[in-house]
Fold Dehydrogenase.
Amino acid sequence: MEVRDKVAIVTGAAGGIGAALAHQFLEAGARVLVSDIDDDKVHATAGRLEQVAGVGTVAAVAGDAADPGTIAEMVAVAERELGPVDIFVANAGVGEAAGLAADEDQWRLGLEVNLLAHVRAARVMVPGWLERGNGYFVSTASAAGLLTQIGSVVYSVTKHGAVAFAEWMAVTYGDKGIGVSCLCPMGVDTDLLNGGLQEDAPGGGQAARAVTGAGVVLDPRTVAEDVLVAISEERFLILPHPEVREFARRKTEDPDRWIRGMQRYARTLAEH
């Protein structure tokens, strides 16, 4: 898909990957609605973006990305202020670090934001895209969705779900004019890594070290650039860390060996 003159919605866009994606879309000639649960931050981000891209190119909606009402508002505002929505980037995510001690509220939040927000957005967007014969859905998952996340069962399971949903979307609608890409990075310099996974919770430090020790921590702008290239190529899997492909291959070829290696890695992390 050529993004010039298209309209994109990006959730989780007050900072990090989401804000970087919005900036890349604008640079490529698109118009963007940014959304985030943090009202002040998302409107501040929208203001900065509009100063760069010009009036009439940016809109903002504050709210929970998993809430059907917020999703409906995002679409309505985008259509009113920018035009019909061509691209939806389900980027909002949570990453609380916990093992089996994770309570029902932690599970519920992870499932809502990391998975069901994607499902609910697709329910809204897909019927119109099918009528028009085109549209694009981008899921921000994680390398944890292809591999696992040491120290955070909720993050690992819900990101696996996000990858599975994106795959299902691609299989079901990919030959009907709807493109689907799934973003699966390792460490990215965002609040999710620097704050959420390092909080004072069981496994928090271990989870953060597992990510930062596995490969380079990328700038969000680098990741956003990869996403725009993938959309232009209509490529499903986006791996800003190329080593993830090799890790996934090893996992598929010999799961037992891969699990033993991950056990060793987890023990090493726990000792430091």
About this structure: Residues 68 and 123 are 10 Å apart (CA to CA). The first strand starts at residue 7 and ends at 10.
